[in-house]
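wait is this the right file?? whatever heres the structure
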């Protein structure tokens, strides 16, 4: 992947965050009002209450984005994930998705959910491969949303600890 790093958002990244998302959205769909709210004002619509935007940088250039938006005490929405055309197929989407899920887990999330569209088949396949499962549709601010998925996370206290009869790793 030629040295791709994931970095947190800062206001200097707003233009790249917006452009990468406008580009992928307009490949398939029309940009909607809710898109513009989030893209124009992430400080108001994404970052409050522990939300975050993560960016993939390759050779110092932002090539991908993902937003992780707190939607409840123990849940986040994965949103605004996009990769520039020239960097698609290099695993950057997976890197961003996994980083966003890790961020949510670190913040105590039990659930990460997302909305997508069947026409974004590569994205839906990526989400499935990370462990997201399809759930019934719900009301959405996006007219294009025809896929609703979730990933249920185990908290540290829910993770299984080995019993004395199970093999244990030794350091």
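ok assuming it is, sequence goes like this
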């Amino acid at each position: 992947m030629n040295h791709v790093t994931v970095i947190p958002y800062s206001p200097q990244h707003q233009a790249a965050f917006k452009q990468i998302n406008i580009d992928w959205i307009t490949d398939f769909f029309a940009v909607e009002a809710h898109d513009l709210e989030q893209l124009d004002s992430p400080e108001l619509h994404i970052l409050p209450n522990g939300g975050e935007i993560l960016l993939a940088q390759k050779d110092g250039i932002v090539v991908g984005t993902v937003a992780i938006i707190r939607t409840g005490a123990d849940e986040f929405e994965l949103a605004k994930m996009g990769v520039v055309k020239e960097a698609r197929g290099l695993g950057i989407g997976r890197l961003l998705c996994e980083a966003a899920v890790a961020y949510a887990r670190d913040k105590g999330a039990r659930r990460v959910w997302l909305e997508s569209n069947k026409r974004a088949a590569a994205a839906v396949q990526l989400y499935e491969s990370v462990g997201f499962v399809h759930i019934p549709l719900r009301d959405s601010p996006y007219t294009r949303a025809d896929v609703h998925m979730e990933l249920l996370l185990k908290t540290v206290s829910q993770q299984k600890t080995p019993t004395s009869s199970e093999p244990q790793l030794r350091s």
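Residues 159-171 have pLDDT under 50 and may be disordered. so i think its the right one actually
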